[in-house]
Amino acid sequence: MSVDLRRQTEISMLDSARFFFDRAADILKLEEPLRELLRYPKRKLIVNFPIRMDNGKVQHFEGYRVQHHPVLGPTKGGIRYHPDVSLDEVEALSVLMAWKCSVMGLPFGGAKGGVKCNPKEMSLGERERLTRRYASEIAPIIGPDVDIPAPDVYTGEREMAWIVDTISMHHDGQFMPGLVTGKPLVLGGSLGRDTATGRGAYFVAVQLIKNMKMKLEGSTAAVQGFGNAGSVIANNLHDSGAKIIALSDSRGGITKSTGLDPHKVMEYKEKNGTVVGFPSSEKISNNDLLELNCDLLAPAALENQLTEKNASKIKAKAVIEVANGPTTMKADEMLYERGISVVPDILANAGGVTVSYFEWVQDRAFYFWSAEEVDLKLKQFMDSAFQRVWDMHVEKKVSLRTASYLVAIDRVAKAARARGIYA
Ligand code: NAD
To answer: Which of 5, 128, 274, 400 is surrounded by the fewest CB atoms within 10 Å?
Structure first.
C-alpha cells in the first residue's frame, strides 16, 4: 500500500516538474531545440555495487546520480538513502534543483543522487562502506568543478565527511573540501547551514508581506511540520512580532488563538518528543491546521498537503512552501484562482542550497566567514531572488510559481543560447 502511494507521488513529481517547465517554456516561447535540451537531464548514471555486510554476506545495492545541465556551472544536489528511491524520483528532483539554483542566481545546474537501501536497518559500519563505495562508483562524474553532492533524506554531515575522505584518497590524499557541501564545520562546513532553509523562507515571507502591503507585526501564521526548517521560520516570524497560531509534527498539531511561543514549544518538544500537549494549547489535526484562518500558512513537512480536496477551504492569504512539493498541480491552480499567493518551493526553501553555495565558495578560497556575514549574504540573495520573481509576476500577470519558473528557465536558456551548440 505505502509503495503504491509513493509510486503515485513519484509519477506526480516528475509529471509536475515537466508540467511547470512546459507552462513556462510556452510563455517564454522557448525554441524547440532548447526546450528538448532543458526538459530532460543531461546525464543519468545507474550504479550497481556490492557491500560486505556485518554478517559476512555480500549484498548488492543500486544507486543513481542524475545531472541536469551544467550550463551555468557545476551541477549541485543532495544524496538520499531510502528503500523507495528510484531513477524517476532522482530525475524529478534533479530538474527541480536546476530551477531552484537558477531562480536564486547561483552558478549551478541541478543534480540529485540516491541509493535504494534502508539505512535504519544498517549498522554504522555498513553505512560507511555503502557511502564510500557509492562515492567511488559516482567518482567519475562528481568533483568541485563538475557536480557537488550534499545531504538529503537520511544522509547528513557524517556521510559527507566519508565522501570527501574517499574521493580525496582517489586524488593522492589531497583534501578536497569543495567536493560536497553540508560537511562538519571542522572539515570546511559553513556556519548558518543548519538554519539556512528556515531563515531563507522567513526572508521570503517578509518580502511577500511587504509586497502584499501587509504588516508582519500582528500578522498570524500557522506552520505544519515543526522540524529543522519549520521551527526556524516559526521562531523568526514570532521574534518579528507575528502571532504563531498553530504548529504541528507527525503526531498532531496544537493551536492557540492568542499565539504560541515557538521557543517554548521547542523546549517542550525536546522533553516530550512532540508538540502535542503543550500547556494552554488546544489539539488540532494536521489537516485542520491547514484550513485555519491566518495570514501565512507554511507547510514545512511533506509533499501533497494542499490538494484539490482542501484547496477551496484554505483561508490563509499566502502560502510559503517550505517543504518540497506541498501543493499539487490542481490545488495550485485553485489557490491562484482564489487569489491566494503561493511562494513556490524552488524559491521559498532555496536558503539551504544558497548557503551550500556559500560553503563551496568558502572551501574553494579556504577562507571562512562569520555567521553574521553568512546571514547578511543569505538575506541579499533571498531578497533579490524574491524581487526578480515578484517583478515577473506583476509584469506577466502570472502566479508566483509560474513567475519563478520563468525567471529560472529564462536565465538558463539565455546562457545556453550565448554558448551556442557544439555539434
Ligand atoms: P525535519 O525532519 O527536520 O522536519 C520535518 C517535520 O515534519 C518534523 O517535525 C516531523 O514530525 C513533521 N512531520 C512528519 N510527518 C508529518 C505529517 N504527516 N504531518 C505534519 N508534520 C509531519 O525535516 P526538514 O529538514 O525540516 O524538512 C522539511 C521539509 O522541507 C521537507 O519537505 C524537506 O524536503 C524540505 N526542505 C528542507 C531543507 C533543509 O535544508 N532542511 C531544504 C529544502 C527543502
So the answer is: 5
